[in-house]
Amino acid sequence: MLTADQTWERKIRRFYYLFTEYYMHALRATLIILFFAASALRGWAQTQLVLLHGDRVLARYSPGQAFTYKLKKTKGFLVSYIIEVREFSVVTSYDTIPFSKIERIGLTGRNQSFLNHLGYALFIVGVGYFAVDEINSLLVEGYGFDNDPNVWEPALILAASGVILRLIRKKSQRLIYPAKLLAAPPGSPFYRPGDR
Q: Residue 134: CB partners within 8 Å, gap ≥ 6?
């Protein structure tokens, strides 16, 4: 016959055994789910097509995006959707194209050069120069609106030249050295996750 202490000790051991078994099963199931989820996420990461000019990325294309290109010995640009990017070729909705057959890549809406950034800065400086002078004449000097051509002419010239520089964009990039196409798999320094 068991004493009361032995009975409680037995119950505690039984509870500890059942709890650790349940905990271990739950932990094992969680680890398996996390492993398969990580494997699935790795499978969703697809190789990107990267257009490099020296060490600068001009354009990045992912599968499913429109791709504008011109083949060697043809006239005009072709537009198709990227299905898959391989190491030395790209599979589009019409054909598989080796990188060596592509002469130009269309950059419409993708390229931001130094001139674009300079134009943005000139526009901000022109508008800011005019705004600061107007605030100065209104609050400090108390004159109200100041129609001084020595202020608004340089401000207008700065802002207009900034807008013009913002609108200058390269339409396409010819694939000659230092420009090249590169297949960037996940883990590559040129790969950017979630870039569409």
A: 145, 146
Instruction: Please spell the DSSP secondary structure of the chain, one letter per residue.
Output: ---HHHHHHHHHHHHHHHHHHHHHHHHHHHHHHHHHHHHHHHHH---EEEEEETTEEEEEE-TTSEEEEEETT--S-EEEEEEEE-SSEEEESS-EEEGGGEEEEE-TTT---HHHHHHHHHHHHHHHHHHHHHHIIIIIS---S---HHHHHHHHHHHHHHHHHHH----EEE--TTEEEEEE-TTSTT--TT--
Phi-psi region of 7 (alpha: psi -120 to 50; beta: other; left: phi over 0): alpha
Q: Which residues contact 47 (CB under 8 A, 6 or more apart)?
A: 63, 84, 85, 86, 183, 184, 185, 186, 191
Q: Which amino acid is at 162?
A: G
pLDDT per residue, tens digit, the chain (196 aa), is 667 777 777 777 777 777 777 777 776 777 777 766 665 555 456 888 888 888 888 888 888 888 889 999 998 888 889 999 998 999 998 889 999 999 988 876 555 677 788 889 999 999 999 999 888 888 887 777 777 888 889 999 999 999 888 887 677 778 878 888 888 888 888 888 866 5
To the question of pTM greater than 0.70 for the whole model, the response is no
